[in-house]
């Protein structure tokens, strides 16, 4: 009986000890890692250190905080480790210490659904592979990870500053064919889903897609290299911060795009451009451009003003061409003007009959956006590297101005200089300006450039003596011109006076003829005599009385002679039978009246 009680007591004590000793409580924010000390090893050689079952060694499954767990005492031991905390702004890069060996030359372990590596047993049984994993842990969170199975390294998230782009190079993936400059495009959430990239056939090397500015990206640095303005100095392919800036087209300009990849362009004459291709969102989606048959080289489609474009500088180069009104000047340039589009347009000097004449010239023109690509294609640039981005390259415009506009102007002045004397040359200023404008318009018609205004300055002789001679000649010409103008004025005045006299005579004759016809010559004669008497100055004493003889004595001799002549004429007319009762005049009488009218008009004029 006592023995039985003792055995029961021992068994009860052992059970109590086992129950108490096998009780496991995992502290908060910790993970319990279980190890079995005794028993058979796992039959799969892939699980030598950590196994997914209850074999000897470290178990893949873990114990989580909250409540309690029971394990066989002595057979198992538990290690408490803090859970893994990935800080904000960081990415957890996971490496598996146990698992299958990678195959097919892959450098990263394939993705396994294992609750972000918190289910080690699912990872191992699902075919998880050793080494760095393609899947990462996002920042700002904690994870209950078996640290005997996984190592977690903290790496910074990729940040692309606003107004810039990030370029991506894949370290893993298929090997791209040698005839392609970029890896195949795969939709992979801006390279944050590495498994989608690899399963979708992603290829090593430069990628067409870029990372937009002003954002953070959870990117596995073991799968992708990302070049930003913060680390571009370490790049070995010649990239600079300028290449990673968004392409901004200022007001008054257009962006001419040159693609560095695409189908082989059609062979054609200089100045041809590649046709438009739809669907690439102004070259922001270059894979669509290539998929739709876009050609390499200068593109017909341009980038509009006042907009910024996040573009891949490995794929496109953009040259800004001004579409505002340009004023190009021919004069002696200063050093500060060396980069201007008219830097090659020097002072125009025309040699006429051995005399050098300087002239200033300015030309206003405007380049439509649709014309800009053709100018770039025809006159080219200076960049020959494989890098793109925004290029401030004045070479195409300077070559156009020099080779088209400059040559046209120089040829015109050389032509007219040999066909005119100095005086003729200076005297044809207006004709020269008009002809020059026509020449420039004709030369630029083929390019599509709009000619707005041609301003021609004065011709200034370099020889001071010639200038003095021109000034003296000008004074002489001005004086001769004034004299000629005076002579013409005097001649015109004489003509006007003669016309006025003739008009007055004609008017007087018509009036007299009408009076004779209506009143008769006798009455008209008497009316005229009375009218003449009325014009004489009469002495006051005559008005008081006296006969006509006294009045006649007061008249001056010339007046008396005139009065007698008029009376004589009147008497002569009466002897010819002219009477007041005559209603119509014969032809001979009308002729006589006209003669009398002429005589009277002559006397009046005298």
Output the structural class: alpha+beta
Radius of gyration, in Å, reads 57 Å
Shape: rod-shaped
Q: Distance between the terminal alpha carbons, to the nearest Å?
A: 190 Å
Mean pLDDT: 82
Task: Point out poorly predicted stretches.
Answer: 576-587, 596-606
Total count of helical runs of at least 4 residues = 14
Give the strand content.
Answer: 15-25%
What spatial order of strands do you see in the largest sheet? 3-4-2-6
**Number of β-strand runs:** 27
The major sheet is characterized as: 4 strands, mixed
Helical content stands at 25-40%
What does this structure look like?
The chain contains 14 helices and 27 strands. The protein is rod-shaped, with a radius of gyration of 57 Å. The relative contact order is 0.06. By secondary structure, it is of the alpha+beta class. A hairpin with a 2-residue loop joins strand 24 and strand 25 (355-366). Helices cover 35% and strands 23% of the residues. The chain starts with a helix and ends with a helix. It has a 4-stranded mixed β-sheet. Strands 13, 14, 15 and 17 form a 4-stranded antiparallel β-sheet that branches.
Which key terms come to mind for this protein?
606 residues, alpha+beta, four-stranded mixed beta sheet, four-stranded antiparallel beta sheet, 27 strands
Outline of the structure:
This protein is an alpha+beta fold and about 600 residues long.
